[in-house]
């Protein structure tokens, strides 16, 4: 049976899948009011991607890993096999629509596309980054597991302070060079540390979420209009986004919901299929945009963003259910069965 507190994380996974889709769906706007609306929307939805890394860190870095190879055998197929299936569908759909039908040319092109994180689609870099993080997870887990709640808070503050220095102050103090971890690895580690914070005020988390969102939106407006020359990296490496993402995860981690077992099962099923929905959503978005009026899309930013985001999410989720049921899940089960036999 699933723990009550995991329900909150399932809700967050579904929410963040919707937010990531909205990142790619939201138009930049062509009028001044449209641009402001787009900035306000992006200021919120951009948190979706960092949250996925934080959630991964919360669970992967707080589990006991007795055997590194067992860990890889259990975890990596769930990341790699769906990616190979959906990336193949992406590639074949695109090039066949262009009239390329030679099987060898398509296969060779697909393999070449896999050699680069964005070789097949711009959003697949996420999988490559997460795969690299998975590979170092056992090492990081040994470090995180030895840290108590109080120390975890100090480490989070230290990591954010280093991030703030390098992002905002280093250009003014070039003679002090403080090494830092890659941004997505930092999110992952901070997630592992944040999981140890057992009691956190939801009011404090909510204040940090609202405050970081407002700061992101306002600073984005001024930066995009040239009033701020420094690159604040507001949508990924900025401290504002770290605070936003971590506060959101802590609040949902401690969220308890009293819902029926039937609803829990549905929510769990939707959550488990969000990875597939993420992988296929760009293809679905491109298909839908063939039937959308561009003037309406760019002029009615708020309405078009909401409508197309939910349409893309719904269709992507439905496709994910079908592909996972027919192809992905049987392949994963077969792979794990063979691995288990080989490990004996």
Fold and architecture overview:
- The chain is mainly alpha-helical and 344 residues long.
- It has one domain.
- 76% of the residues lie in helices and 0% in strands.
- It contains 14 helices and no strands.
- It is globular and about 55 Å long.
- The two termini are 29 Å apart.
How would you sum up this structure in a few lines?
This protein has helices spanning 4-25, 32-45, 48-60, 68-97, 103-114, 125-145, 149-169, 183-194, 202-224, 239-253, 261-272, 274-289, 294-299, 301-343.
Overall number of domains: 1
**Portion in strands:** under 5%
Question: What is the helix fraction of residues, given as a range?
Answer: over 70%
User: Can you count the helices?
Assistant: 14
What is the residue-averaged pLDDT?
Answer: 93
- Silhouette: globular
Record the SSE blueprint.
Layout: H1 4-25, H2 32-45, H3 48-60, H4 68-97, H5 103-114, H6 125-145, H7 149-169, H8 183-194, H9 202-224, H10 239-253, H11 261-272, H12 274-289, H13 294-299, H14 301-343
List keywords for this structure.
344 residues; mainly alpha; 14 helices; disordered N terminus
